[in-house]
Design goal:
The protein is α+β, with helices and mostly antiparallel strands. Helices cover 74% and strands 8% of the residues. The chain folds into 2 domains: 203 residues, f41 fragment of flagellin, N-terminal domain (Up-down Bundle), CATH 1.20.1330; 132 residues, Heat Shock Protein 90, CATH 3.30.565.10. The protein contains 12 helices and 5 strands. Strands 1-2-3-5-4 form a 5-stranded mixed sheet, covered by helices on one side. Strand 2 and strand 3 form a beta hairpin. The two termini are 42 Å apart. Its EC number is 2.7.13.3.
Length: 454
């Protein structure tokens, strides 16, 4: 009993809920996915902002360089030949100041992104432009005093100076184009790196979570499997214990039935014989003889009650005559007490069954007939017991009011199922309201019996 209690405590332990583990895992995975998606969106927006800033800076610097280039070209035009396109001599200082402001704005737009080579090139451009603007008034005065109409552009060294400045502007523009492309490419690479790191971290977290959930599920499955084994073992031990208890009960019933029949029954029979002798020796028509007859009648009734009790406990004919005579006697007794039409049909070759089978079949028929008398309101019942090479088939069928087996199963049917289950058999109950009830029990033929048949 101590082992059974310990195992019951183990079985009663609460099993960790795998559903909760899965829910927690799914919520965590969704959280990781949401965080990863938010990080990707943030990185994309950040990259888009930086790209817009790079493009905007590039366009601004391009406009500044284009304005500077246009200003330098206008300065090279002659006011006499080009009219409004040329810069008047009086406006040269303002144009010079505007050129310097453009260069200052260009340098400011570069900010920290400009390297030393770019800054040096910008300083060279400033120096060339300053030299040009410083020499431009003198050149114009010389051209104004020339007797021949001056050409639209200056010639010689002045033209080379203009071309040199234009080339410097183009190189600076190309360089800042390359720098803008490099910045965009670097930002693209940075975004790819962040996305890769974020994806790898998310995958690592998900794989770790999946591994943890898998380990937890396997642990839970092993625990559940161990519990199932414990339950099966406990049930098997309980069935074994119930079988032994039933055997002990049957043995006790057998002993009690024999005690009632042999000891008390014989004693009361001897007393009845003695009363009959005394009654025969007494004179007729006396009050004592009438009282003696009454005592004798009560004693006979008590003997019948004791005999009935002994037969209910364990009919001696089940052990002395066999299963088939006991079943037929049971049918006759039920018919005598209840008025039912009971028909019992059984194969005579069923007498070689072990005692556990004979007792089980007899008790099933006894319980089934008791249920018919008590609940079925039937007028007839048929009991059939047949055997084949592999199975034993017992059928009890009545024409009573029937019931719903799925919802109205009582203790009697549960007891029948327990008895049949201990012998690895099956019970099938077929019934419906107003259509009677059929109980069909199928038992495997005992191994010893099967060997004898072969």
């Amino acid at each position: 009993m101590r082992v059974m209690e310990d195992r019951t405590k183990i079985i009663a332990k609460p099993l960790f809920s795998g559903r909760k583990i899965l829910w927690v895992g799914c919520v965590f995975i969704l959280a990781v996915m949401c965080v990863s998606t938010a990080d990707v969106i943030y990185s994309l927006r950040k990259t888009a902002a930086k790209s817009d800033a790079v493009v905007s800076g590039f366009r601004q610097r391009s406009r500044l360089l284009e304005t500077l280039r246009t200003l330098m070209l206008r300065s090279a035009l002659s006011p006499d030949s080009d009219g409004e396109r040329a810069i008047e001599s009086s406006d040269l200082p303002a144009a010079h100041l505007q050129a310097n402001q453009i260069l200052e704005q260009f340098g400011a737009s570069l900010g920290a992104s400009g390297d030393e080579a770019t800054q040096q090139r910008l300083d060279d451009l400033k120096s060339s432009i300053n030299q040009y603007w410083d020499s431009l008034p003198i050149i114009r005065e010389q051209n104004a005093s020339h007797p021949v109409t001056p050409p639209p552009f200056f010639r010689g060294a002045e033209r080379r100076q203009i071309r040199h400045i234009a080339r410097q502007i183009m190189e600076l523009n190309r360089e800042q184009q390359d720098r803008a492309g490099a910045q965009l490419h670097a930002e693209h690479d940075r975004l790819q790196g962040e996305l890769l790191i974020s994806s790898l971290l998310s995958l690592a977290v998900v794989f770790a979570l999946i591994a943890g959930i898998s380990y937890r599920i396997k642990t839970t499955e092993r625990f559940a499997e161990q519990q199932y084994k414990d339950v099966v073992q406990a049930r098997a031990e309980l069935q074994t214990f119930a079988g032994r208890l039933e055997q002990a009960q049957e043995e006790e019933r057998r002993n009690l039935s024999r005690e009632l029949h042999d000891e008390l029954g014989q004693t009361m029979a001897a007393a009845l014989v003695e009363l009959s002798r005394i009654e025969s020796e007494m004179p007729q028509d006396t009050a004592a003889k009438a009282q003696l007859a009454s005592v004798k009648s009560e004693l006979e009734g008590s003997m019948r009650s004791i005999r009935d009790i002994a037969l209910v406990l364990r009919p001696s004919m089940l052990d002395d005559l066999g299963l088939v005579p006991a079943l037929k006697w049971q049918g006759r007794e039920v018919a005598r007490r209840s008025g039912l039409a009971v028909r019992v049909e059984a194969d005579d070759d069923c007498e070689s069954l072990p005692d556990t089978y004979r007792t089980c079949i007899y008790r099933i028929v006894q319980e089934a007939l008791h249920n018919v008398v008590k609940h079925a309101s039937a007028t007839s019942v048929a009991v059939s017991f047949r055997s084949t090479n592999e199975t034993l088939l017992l059928t009890v069928e009545d024409n009573g009011k029937g019931f719903r087996p799925a919802s109205e199963k009582g203790m009697g049917l549960l007891g029948i199922e327990e008895r049949v289950g201990r012998l690895a058999g099956l019970v099938r109950v077929t019934s419906s309201p107003d259509k009677g009830t059929t109980i069909q029990v199928t038992l495997p033929v005992p191994a010893v019996e099967r060997e004898e048949v072969r």
